[in-house]
Design goal:
The chain has helices spanning about 50-65, 85-95, and strands at about 5, 10, 15-20, 25, 30-35, 75-80, 105-110, 120-125. The protein is an alpha+beta fold. It has one domain: 60s Ribosomal Protein L30, Chain: A. The strands form two sheets. Strands 1-4-5-8-6-7 form a six-stranded mixed β-sheet, with helices on one face. A two-stranded antiparallel sheet has the order 2-3. Helix 2 links the parallel strand 6 and strand 7 (about 105-110). Helix 1 runs parallel beside helix 2. One of its GO terms (molecular function) is hydrolase activity. InterPro entries: RidA_CS, RutC-like_sf, YjgF/YER057c/UK114. Its EC number is 3.5.-.-.
């Protein structure tokens, strides 16, 4: 089974390359690296936990669309929040994206690598190649 990188190179707003793949296809699974709330300018979006959650999930959705999949194919999600007080607002936004059959999920509180980041979301997707 070949492992295929998806999504191109990861580069920070200042041009620093990051040694990871946005996503990897391994057989029938697509595994996404943790998505931070990077806007089009490469910086963490303003607007608090709600805006950052939407940006993370929109980035996940865009990566999935690039392989022909969608949020309905997400089997498992891991979420890191930098502040446990954000859980309720995070959960409300998350529910908008996964309303019918939500994936299995773990949510933990942890310091994140970028000081302005409030949330990081990674996903495992079941999507056999057509």
């Amino acid at each position: 089974m070949a492992i295929e990188a998806i999504g191109g190179a990861v580069v920070l707003a200042d041009g620093t390359p990051v040694p990871l793949s946005k996503a990897i296809r391994a057989g029938d699974f697509v595994m996404l690296s943790g998505q931070l709330a990077f806007g089009p300018d490469g910086k963490i979006v303003d607007g608090g936990i709600e805006a950052q959650t939407r940006q993370c999930l929109d980035s996940i959705k865009a990566l999935l669309v690039s392989v022909g999949a969608g949020l309905e194919n997400v089997a498992r999600v891991t979420v890191w929040l930098s502040d446990p007080e954000d859980f309720g607002n995070f959960n409300r936004v998350y529910a908008e994206y996964f309303s019918s059959v939500p994936p299995a999920r773990s949510t933990v509180c942890s310091a994140l690598m970028l000081p302005d980041a409030k949330v990081e979301i990674e996903a495992t997707v079941f999507y056999p190649k057509p």
